[in-house]
Amino acid sequence: MTYPLSAAKLQCYDRCPKSYYFRYERKLPGTAFFGSAALGTSLHQALAQIYRDWHYQDALPALEWIEHCWNQQSNGLSSKQLEEGRGILRRYYHEFIMAEAAMRRPLAVEGRIQGTLQVENLEFSLSGRYDRIDYLDDGLELIDYKSTKDVNLSESDELDLQIGLYYLALEQHYQRSLKQLSLIYLRTGDKVSFEVTPFHRERVTALISELALELRHDRRWQPFAGEQCDRCAYAKYCSAACACPEPLPDTAKPEPQLQLVLGL
Q1: Looking at the predicted structure, is the pLDDT value of residue 150 above 80?
Q2: Exposed, middle or buried, 143 (CB in 10 Å: 0-12/13-18/19+)?
């Protein structure tokens, strides 16, 4: 039996084990988020097609190829979104494709990566999605497209965990080390790169070890009280955030008995 783990799960556990418990162990619904992600989805799909389907017989594609891919992936968008997306891809073309002597074929585009890690006799399956993986001289570069309007690097701890998880999974899948994570902000044209070091691997391994202890032995799910409690979707159930916490709703998943099953 394996325990599925993603970057989002690790980040949630790092912020507050109790929140993790409510969300993933008891399956309580979190805060709903509203807003259309259609433009961002179309941009990601168009960029995937640009790199995946180009024949690479010529050094660089013409702008018409970018327009073709955008037309293929932009169905259902409003006229305003169509023009905005077209402008974003044209800027990307000039800044990130035409600026190079040739467009290099990536190792992979738009997919999922998986790996495993065994701790405390519990096997974790590590998974995450990527936008693009490029070759470097000494390893791999993971490219993550961002369609947000602002460059936001404030959550460095969470980024470290994402890097560490991909470090483990890519090393197992491709037998090559992740050397760099790059965030490309499509609306601004900024590219921000982070060097990947053994520290990222060690940090995520240590955090998974802590989670394994919770699952196998402790099951205390100690809350981390702080400013994050004010915006936590589960504060009303938590004794650290509320003097008189409410009982969990009947819809909550029964208390998991994972440690008993894994002990067989």
Answers
A1: no
A2: buried
